[in-house]
Write a structure and sequence with these properties.
CATH topology of the largest domain: TIM Barrel
CATH architecture of the largest domain: Alpha-Beta Barrel
Shape: globular
Helix content: 25-40%
Number of domains: 2
CATH superfamily of the largest domain: Aldolase class I
Structural class: alpha/beta
Strand order of the largest sheet: 3-4-11-12-13-14-15-16
Number of helices: 18
Strand content: 15-25%
Radius of gyration: 23 Å
Number of strands: 20
């Protein structure tokens, strides 16, 4: 990347402070762009779901991996839950969605309680041998007693898609029957569900798959306790990347812990032949990035305080504008033979493109994805019937309580005095883009277009070809669309 006019900035920059200048380009189509990441993670789009308990879980991990991204499971959940989640993601089909299943005798309330995890808002009704016998949608349950049985309100199964059918043939079946969703069967066995939009996405995105053809998923560990033992256990579950995570990554404890985690990773590689990338953070300086790479990190997470749920900068004055932080850390990591992820601060597709222009291999997204059907939170309605989910920072009172659950009451109370993150915030679902796949479509469309403007077909080319200028608040405002007339 170079700055317009070769003028280096005299102050640090946020994403809002910069813009990208079009360059002479031979890339004529967004579909000619290859977004495979250069960091060895195995993702085919440069998106990582942040390891926040309000954002990353089983459903989120499965869904984004099917589209080429990867989710990182939070460090605060029990190790048994990580094992269960990794197993579920690995068992999921790379093309077909894992359905909600319910028996005909189940109450309507049961299916409604879990339907909020699916953008298509439907469940498959199965008999006692797990054979599909019908479908039940949210619309079927309107004005129905919550104690009524699902079998009383379900719809007919309708035409089914045979497992292994070509994506185009499956789409033609749904289109010809005017269906939005169909069940996939292998003989009489339920394999999953497909939607019209999901089939189109399967023709555009390439799933993030491991060497065995299974969906990829990552997990995080902290820097306290027996970190090596926990890391070894998580590696044994089959995760595809391991993140050593703390708010202040440039500290002695992190630098002391990283070599032992790397040793556990190397032992796992010797035993399995599978190399798991090691990620560490967070930092915002060249020195921090270089030190973490020297201590064993393959990838460095960059960002202190830019996230929507983070009050670190207001509480402590610590942090750095994210564009400059990514730019400096990416250069330092490259010199050391490593990569960086830009963690936090993205609100629009332009921000993701600018983070990549600054040198990031991937961009971590948290709160933006919290307001989707696939995030772990409970779906709620406000007074105006708008759908939302609660999100919270990982240094908030809620997160601290979870992290310190094994401490004494006194120690938990003492820790609770010093939370920094927002304890709770409503993340409203966008009616036009309520699912995480909808947001991925929007983000990747913008990023692909940015690459064509730069004349870049790959992330590596984008790093070198992007030309960035500096703007004031008026310049940023000039680029915003108007939803009403003047």
């Amino acid at each position: 990347m170079k700055f317009l006019g070769s003028t280096e900035p005299t102050h640090d920059l946020t994403y809002n402070d910069v813009f990208m200048v079009p360059s002479r380009s031979a890339v004529t189509s967004r579909m000619d762009v290859d977004l495979t990441t250069p960091d060895g993670v195995g993702t085919t789009i440069p998106i990582v779901v942040s390891n926040m308990t309000a954002v990353s879980g089983k459903r989120m991990a499965e869904t984004v991996a099917r589209r080429g991204a990867v989710a990182v499971l939070p460090q605060d959940i029990p190790v048994e839950a990580i094992e269960e989640t990794v197993a579920a993601v690995k068992a999921a089909d790379p093309v077909y969605e894992t359905p909600i299943v319910v028996e005909p005798g189940a109450p309507v309330a049961q299916v409604l309680s879990v339907m909020g995890k699916r953008a298509h808002r439907a469940a498959v009704v199965v008999d006692d041998q797990h054979r599909p016998v019908g479908l039940v949608t949210e619309a079927d349950c309107v004005e129905v007693d919550r104690f009524a049985q699902v079998g009383e309100v379900m719809s007919e199964l309708g035409p089914t898609v045979k497992a292994g059918a070509a994506v185009r043939d499956a789409f033609d079946l749904l289109d010809g029957e005017h269906l939005e969703l169909a069940v996939v069967v292998d003989g009489e066995t339920l394999r999953g569900v497909v939607t019209r939009k999901g089939l189109l996405r399967s023709a555009i995105y390439t799933p993030a798959l491991d060497t065995h053809g299974r969906l990829r998923v990552g997990a995080a560990v902290g820097i306290n306790g027996d970190v090596r033992a926990r890391a070894a256990a998580i590696l044994g579950f089959g995760v595809d990347l391991l993140v050593v995570d703390t708010a202040h990554g440039h500290q002695e404890k992190m630098i002391d812990v990283l070599p032992s985690v790397r040793a556990a990773r190397d032992e796992h590689e010797q035993a399995t032949g599978v190399r798991v990338p090691l990620v560490a953070g967070n930092v915002v300086s060249a020195e921090g990035a270089a030190d973490l790479v020297a201590a064993g990190a393959d990838i460095v997470k960059v960002g202190v305080g830019p996230g929507a749920m983070c009050t670190t900068r207001m509480m402590t004055g610590v942090g750095r504008p994210q564009f400059s932080a990514v730019l400096e850390c990416a250069a330092a990591a490259k010199d050391a033979g490593a990569h960086v992820w830009a963690d936090g601060g993205v609100k629009y597709p332009r921000d993701v493109a600018l983070a990549l222009a600054a040198g990031a291999a991937s961009v971590m997204i948290g709160s933006w994805f919290a307001g989707t059907f696939e995030s772990p939170g409970d779906l709620q309605h406000d007074g105006d019937s708008r759908l939302f989910k609660e999100s919270f920072g990982m240094a908030s009172a809620r997160a601290v309580r979870q992290r310190t659950r094994d401490l004494s009451a006194f120690d938990r109370a003492r820790s609770a005095l010093f939370e920094e993150g927002i304890s709770s915030s409503r993340m409203y679902l966008d009616p036009e883009r309520p699912g995480v796949e909808d947001l991925l479509d929007q983000i990747i469309s913008g990023v692909r277009s940015a690459f064509t403007y730069a004349g870049a077909e790959t992330i590596g080319q984008f790093h070198s070809r992007a030309v960035v200028g500096i703007q004031g608040a008026a310049g940023y405002d000039e680029g915003r669309p108007r939803h009403t007339s003047w």
